[in-house]
Amino acid sequence: MGLRLGLLDLFQAGGPLSLRPARTVKTQDDELFDDEFQRKLDYLALVSRKVFNGRMRAERRTKKSGSGIEFADHRDYQPGDDFRYLDWNVYQKFGRLLLRLYEEEEDLSVYLIIDASGSMAFGEGNKLKYAKKVCAALAYVGLANLDRVGIVSTSDKVMDRMPETRGKGRIFKVFRFMRELEPAGITDLGDALKTFVAQHKRRGLAVLVSDLYDPAGFEKGINVLRYNKFDPFVVHIVDKREEKPKLAGDVLLYDCETGDEREVTVTAKVLERFGHVYNEYLHEIERFCTTRTVPYIQADVSVPFDDLILRIFRRGGFLR
Amino acid sequence: MILAGIPFATLATIFGAVAAGMIALYILKLRRRVVAVPFSLLWQKILRDKEATSLFSKLKRLLSLLLQLALLALLVLALGDPRAAATLIKGRNVVVLVDASASMQATDVAPNRLAVAKDEVKRLIRGMGGADRMLIAQMDAAITPMGPMSGDTSELERAVDSIKATDARADFPRALRFATDSLRNIDNAEVVVVSDGNLGEAIDSAGPVHIGDVKLSYMPVGKAKDNVAITQFSVRRYPLDKSRYEVMLEVENTGPEPADVEMSLLGDGTLVDLTKLRLKPGERLPRFYANLSGASRTLEAKLAMIGDTKDYLPADDHAYALLPERRRAKVLVVSTGNTYLEAALLLDEYLEVLTATPLEYATKYAQKSNTFDAIVFDEATPAEMPKTNALYLDPRGPGSPFKVENEIREPGFDKIDRKHPIVRFTALDQVNIARGHKLKAEPGDKVIGASEEGPILVAGTRGGNKMVALGFDVRDSDLALRVAWPVLLLNIINYFTDEDASYLSSFRTGDVWRIPVGQGATQATLTMPGGATQPVPVHEGRAVFLGQNAGFYELSLAQPGAQPAATTGNPTDVTQAGTSVRFAANLLDDFESTIGPQEKLMVDGKEAGTVSAFHVGVRREIWIYLLFIAIAITVLEWITYHRRLTV
Predict the structure, then answer these.
(1) Is there a domain that residue B455 lies in?
(2) Is residue A81 located within the same domain as residue A225?
(3) Which residue of B has its CA nearest to A239?
(4) Bigger pLDDT: A46 vs A116
C-alpha cells in the first residue's frame, strides 16, 4: 500500500500505448547457415545413414492401395472399377467378383511447417533462429535421404511455402527460404494448417516446429494434421527464460502478437505462480501428443541444435 | 486540548488543501510500466485468481488512502502543537538566579561551584514541562538576564552557557527585586536561587525585599569551607619622601582548620618579600611592609598553601596594587613678588615652578592655563578663573572663586577641619594674623579654617577644577615664619595633583568605578585584565564602569579634546586625552571569602523550599509523539510495501 501516486510512472512511461514498439526482433539470418552449420548438417546426414543403415528410401511404402506390383488385398467389385484388376481365379473358384488390390509404392513427402508468428521472435528472436536451424537441418537430412521435402511458414495463415523438392543440392534453396523468412502475425495453427492440407494433396510427414503459443488452442493445429492423414511430428520450441520473466511492480502486460493488455502487480508470489502455469502448459502439450501417439520433442533453445536433431532421430518417427 | 501552535482554522485549511491533492492523485489512474509478453493467455489464469481478490485490492487501496490521510492528519496536528489544557494552565514561570559571585569559583566541587550550578540549571531546563517558561539571570554585583523568558530548551541552555564567573559579591536584594518584578502579576511564579548561599540578608536601601506569593526555591551548591584570603591590600608613598612607600595587607583564614600559608609580595613581577604564616581558624593577620623602595610600579600579593592546607577559592589568593607614578607638577605663581611663597615652593624638588606677573599672566598664560597642574595667585585675582586648579592668596574682586566679604581684624584659625588633607601635619591654631577678609563658601564648598567672624580658608570645585582660597596675605601674619606654611602649601599642591597620602591603590570589584578622565571626553576604552577591551562611557568627566574582575586595568581616552590634566597613575587622578592610566582592582571581601555553603536560604522571614517537579525524561509536548507515530507508520508502510506484503 505504498503512496502510489503514479507520478514516477507518468514520467517513466515511454509514451502513448498506441505508439508502443513491437518487441519482436528481426532475425539476422545471414550467419545462421555458415560453413560450421553446413559441416554439422553433413555430420547429421552421415549419422542418420549409419543409424538406419540398409533401409532404402524406395522401401518406404504408403498405406495407400494403388497400382504397385505387390498384392495387398481383395475387395468387392463395384460398378465402374477397372476390369483389369478383377481376380478371375477367385471368380472361377467361388463365383464372386473380387478386385485385386496392390500396395502403391511412392517416395514419401516430408513437410516442415515452421511457425513464424510474432511470439517466435519474442525477446531476442532466439526461438525463431533456433526453429530455422532445426528446419534447415531436418530438410538437409530429408534431402540427403532422397525424400521430397517441402517447407511452409505459418502464422494465422500460410505465409510462404517452398515447393517439395528432392536432392541434396537443393539445400541452398532451403537456406534462402529460411533467410527470407520474417516473423509476423498472430498464431492460429488451426486455420493455417487447414490451408496447408488443402494445398498439399500428397500426404506425408508433417513436422510442426512451433512454440505452440496459440490463443485458439495448440490442439487444433495438430488435430487438423491428424484428421487429414498427415503424420504429425511436433518439435516444440521452448525458451526457458520465459518461465521466469524479469518483471516487478505494477506493470501493464501486453501480448506481443495480439496486443491484448492486462494490468498486473507482479510480486514474487505471482512470478512463482506464473512458473507453475507455464510448466503446466508444457506438460499439457506433451500429454496431448503422447496420448495421441504424436511424436513430440521439446526443444529448449539453450540446447545445441545438433543435439536436438540426434534426439529427434532417436525418438523415431522422422527416419524410418 | 488546546492548540499552542498554528490555529485550528489554518490547520483545517492546510489539511483540506493537501488532502484534496492526495485524493486527486489517488483517483488518477496509475500509469503502469508497459511490458511485452509472448503469450498473455498464460497470465490469464493468474489474473483470474487475482480478480477474485479485486474487492480486497480495492479495499486495500482505500485503506492506503485512509492511512495517507491519517498520516497527513498527524503531521498537521503536530504543526498545531496540541497540549493538554491542564498543562497549559499550570505552566510555571520560573526565574532562575544563578550566583556568579567570587565564592562560586570555589573548587570544592569539581570543576567548580559555578560549573556545577550550571549543570544543575540545565537539568532543570530538561525537566521543564511543555507549558513551563524560564528566565535565566546571572547574579553578581549586578543582575543580568541572559535571555528572554522562554520555553525553548536549547535557547535556555545557551543562556546558561553564557554565564561567567566574576570576582565580585552578589547583590542578592537587587536580584530578588528583579525576579519579583519580572514575575509580577504572573501565575505559578517561582524563583529558583542556585547558589552557595553566601548572599547576605535580602535587605537593601529600600528595606527588606518582599517576595509576596512567588514561590522561592533554593538549590545549594558546594560543600567545603576551607579558604585563606587576602582581605586587605594597599600601598602608599610617604608624604615627605615619595621615593619610598609602605604596603599594608591583611590575610584571613575563613576556614575551620588552621592554615599554613606562604605569602609572597612581588614588585614589577620580582619577588620583594616572602613570608610564611600560620593562621588559626577565623584569624585575621594584618601585615605591614614599611620603608620599601625601588622603582616598583605594580605590586602583587600571592598566597600559596603549605602542606595539606586546603584552599578552595583561588580568586582571593591574589591582590594587586599600583603605586602612584611620580612626576613633576607644573606650578605657575602669579605674583608681584613674594619671597615666602617662592621659598616654600623650593622645598619640593618635584615641583616645576614658573613665576609671572599679573600682567604677564593676563597676556601670556591666561589662555593656556590648562597646561599647568596648579596656579597660585598671590594678591592677584584675574577676572576669569583659570582652567586648572588654583590657590588664591588673599583674593579680591569679582574674579575670585569664593565671594570676598568684609575685612576682619586679627582673625585666627578658631575652627579647623583637621581631617582635610591640606591641613594635615600643620598646627594653625597659634597663627597670628593682622587682618584678612571673610570668604563666603558656596554650597558644596568646604570651609577648612575659620575665625570667629567667618571662613578664612575655603576649598571647592569650579568647572571641575579644585580651588582653594586663603583669606589673608601671609605677609600680614606670622604663618610665613612657621613650619606650617610650606607644609600647608605643599599639602594644597598635593591635593591638587592628588598625590596625597590618602592615595587609593586599587578599586574594589563589584563597585561602580568612576575614573576621572578630564572634561570634554565622551568615551574611553578600558583594557581588561584578560586583554579584552571594552568602551566605557564618560559621565561628568569620569569613566563609569562596573568592575567585576580583579587584576590590572588600563583606561585610554579614545577621543581627543579632553582637558589635559595630570597623569599620575592614581585611579582617582585625571587622565589626559591620548594617554592612558593603569589601575588595579581587587576582591578584598572577607564576606565573599567565607565560602562555607549555607544549607538554608531565608528571605522575607521565610525559608526557601527545595527545587522539585523538574523531572527529566517526560516531555509534555504532544507534537513530538505525533511526529514519532507518523514516522513509525511510514517506516512500517515502507517495509510492508517493499516486501510486497500489502500490494
Answers:
(1) yes
(2) no
(3) B38
(4) A116
Are B361 and B476 in the same domain?
A: yes
For chain A, where are the alpha helices, taking DSSP H only?
Answer: 7-12, 35-51, 88-94, 126-144, 171-179, 189-199, 218-227, 268-291, 305-315
* Domain of A85, in residue numbers: 61-105
Tell whether A191 and A173 lie within a shared domain.
yes
Check: CB of residue B196 under 8 Å from CB of residue B104. yes
Asked if pLDDT for residue B99 goes beyond 90, the answer is: yes
- Look at residue B632 and tell me if it is in a domain: no
What CATH number did the domain enclosing B273 receive?
Answer: 2.60.40.10
Same domain, A44 and A140: yes
Do residues B417 and B485 share a domain?
A: yes
Best B27, B28, B35, B637 residue to mutate vs chain A (most A CBs within 10 Å) = B35
How near does any CA of chain A get to the CA of B82, in Å?
27
Find, in chain A, the residue whose alpha carbon is nearest to that of B642.
A2
Task: Give chain B's mean pLDDT.
Answer: 84
Given CB atoms, is B326 within the 8 Å cutoff of chain A?
Answer: no
Domain final residue pick, A105, A137, A170: A105
Residue B203 is assigned to a structural domain of this protein: yes
Number of domains in chain A: 2
In a domain, A50, yes or no: yes
What pLDDT digit, counting tens, does each position of A196-233 carry?
Answer: 999 888 888 899 999 999 988 899 999 999 999 888 88
Asked whether the beta carbons of residue B45 and residue A269 sit closer than 8 angstroms, the reply is no
- CA gap B284, B230 in Å, rounded: 9
CB-based contact B33 A251, cutoff 8 Å: yes
Contact across the interface for A274 and B46, Cβ inside 8 Å: yes
Judged by CB atoms within 8 Å, which residues 617-646 of B form the interface with A? Answer: 637-638, 640-641, 644, 646
Which residue of A1, A22, A269 is in closest CB contact with B60?
A1
Domain extent at residue B519: 507-586
Q: How many domains does one find in chain B?
A: 5
End-to-end CA distance of chain A: 62
Q: Which of B266, B296, B319 marks a domain boundary?
A: B319
Q: Residue A273 and residue B25: Cβ atoms within 8 Å? A: no
Among A4, A5, A213, beta carbon nearest to B39: A213
**C-alpha distances in Å from residue B353, one per residue of B332, B376, B647:** 6, 10, 108
The answer to whether the CB of B298 falls within 8 A of the CB of B269 is yes
- Across chain B, how many H-helices and E-strands are there? 12, 36
A-chain residue closest to B29, CA distance: A6
Is B480 a domain residue? yes
B33 Cβ under 8 Å from any chain A Cβ: yes
CB atoms B647 and A252 under 8 Å: no
Instruction: Please state the separation of Cα B11 from the chain's center in Å.
Output: 48
Last-in-domain residue among B297, B319, B341: B319
CA distance B46 to chain A (A): 7
Provide the whole-model pTM. Answer: 0.49
Measured between beta carbons, the chain A residues lying within 8 angstroms of B67 are 1
Model-level ipTM above the cut of 0.85: no
Q: What tens digit of pLDDT does each residue of B137-186 get? A: 999 989 999 999 998 889 999 999 999 999 988 999 999 999 999 988 88
Residue B58 touches partner A, C-beta closer than 8 Å: no
What residues in A contact B61, CB-CB < 8 Å?
1
Let me know: does A77 contact A53? Beta carbons within 8 Å: no
> A145 and A45 in one domain?
yes
Q: Assess whether pLDDT exceeds 70 at residue A180.
A: yes
CB atoms under 10 Å from CB of A72, counted, come to 16
Domain co-membership, B196 together with B127: yes
Which residues lie below 8 Å from residue B382, measured CB to CB, with a gap of 6+? B334, B358, B361, B362, B366, B399
Q: What is the pLDDT of residue B591?
A: 86
In tens, the pLDDT along B198-223 reads 888 888 888 888 888 888 999 999 98
| CA–CA separation, A132 and A30 (whole Å) | 12
Q: Do B491 and B518 fall into the same domain?
A: no
Q: What is the C-alpha separation between B632 and A222, in angstroms, rounded?
A: 60
Residues of B in contact with A268 (CB under 8 A): 644
| B31–A10 C-beta distance less than 8 A | yes
Asked whether residue B186 falls in the same domain as residue B252, the answer is no
pLDDT at B571 over 50: no
